[in-house]
Amino acid sequence: MRNEGRSSRHIKVAAILGPTAVGKSRIAVEVARNLEAEIISVDSMQVYRGMDIGTAKPGHELREAIPHHMIDVVNPDEEYSVARFQLEARRAVEEVASRGKVPLLVGGTGLYFEAVVYDLRFPPGGEENGLREELEEWARRDLEGLRARLREVDPEFASRSDFSNPRRVIRAMEVYMRTGVPISRLQSRRGEQPLVYPYVGVVLDAPRQALYRAIDRRVEEMFSAGLVEEVRSLAERGLSRTARQALGYKEVLSYLDSRKTLGETISEIKRRSRRYAKRQLTWFRRLPGLRWLRLEESELLRSSPESWKRVFECLREGLDGGD
């Protein structure tokens, strides 16, 4: 199981992936304890300090039980890219392996997982030389004109639901202008690139309605735990464009601007969380070599030794199965 004595090109990682509210964090701690592993988060929003309740960040007791990496790495007023995550998360993988521990990637952001284990190449970041600002101004001035131009250079992207999202339209045009390659072509290659780190991974799933009930419970618990107060405090200190788009935070910010009632806000977050869970599962189905484990509703409600033991045995078998 250990990576002791191996070069960086021969590190094998483990992964526990799955949709929101399926219970990845608590299962991962038990698995890590028995697998002699350290956890590396692959969650795009848990990188932000202070964004705790809305991201369902592992509590201090879990993080004290097992070392966690790639959590609380930047302030919420900073922009943070997947390219930067790739660099820093791979550094964490190498450091964990150098200690003879198993790097255990845990989270629900499929792109962030792929960015670590596959040889994904990202276009240059969006802040230098003013291109992002120029495109944002174009979108403010003439969003339909920007969409028309993007439709010409990337008709496949224009056929997707993302085409309705101005932020993603801006990013797609930025990628094309920086690289000369449509973003849809870059995305279609995912899962086909060479591996940087061979992996053995588990995707946790559950009956759909049981998962949706778990999502609804989590959203209600977040509001009971003080999500509105957390978002208000963060907004006063400043939130980056990326952080402001986080699921739950965007809706609460709208509520604080008196655009919606609290009840409407809670219902909207539940709906968006269910849709997000579906997209997460769709993403993981595209990736080869992942084993799917189904949790029953009782396992979503409370911690069960049977749950983590099944995950542990699956990962141990894969890690011990050779290179």
Low-confidence runs? 4-8
Mean pLDDT score, rounded?
89
Q: Might you state the CATH topology name of the largest domain? A: Rossmann fold
Note the overall shape.
Answer: globular
Supply Rg: 20 Å
Oligomer: single chain
CATH class of the largest domain: Alpha Beta
Number of domains: 2
* End-to-end distance: 11 Å
Strand order of the largest sheet: 3-2-4-1-5-6
CATH homologous superfamily placement of the largest domain: P-loop containing nucleotide triphosphate hydrolases
SS elements, strand count: 6
The class by helix and strand makeup works out as alpha/beta
Helix content: 40-55%
Number of helix segments?
15
Strand count, sense and closure of the main sheet?
A: 6 strands, parallel
Provide a short characterization of the protein structure.
With 323 residues, this protein is α/β, with parallel strands linked by helices. It has helices at residues 24-35, 60-65, 82-98, 110-117, 131-153, 155-158, 166-179, 183-188, 208-224, 227-237, 241-244, 249-256, 262-285, 297-301, 305-319; strands spanning 13-17, 37-41, 68-69, 102-107, 199-205, 290-294.
List the helices and strands and how they pair.
Layout: E1 13-17, H1 24-35, E2 37-41, H2 60-65, E3 68-69, H3 82-98, E4 102-107, H4 110-117, H5 131-153, H6 155-158, H7 166-179, H8 183-188, E5 199-205, H9 208-224, H10 227-237, H11 241-244, H12 249-256, H13 262-285, E6 290-294, H14 297-301, H15 305-319
Parallel strand pairs: 1-4, 1-5, 2-3, 2-4, 5-6
Helix pairs in contact: 1-15, 3-4, 5-7, 9-13, 10-12, 12-13
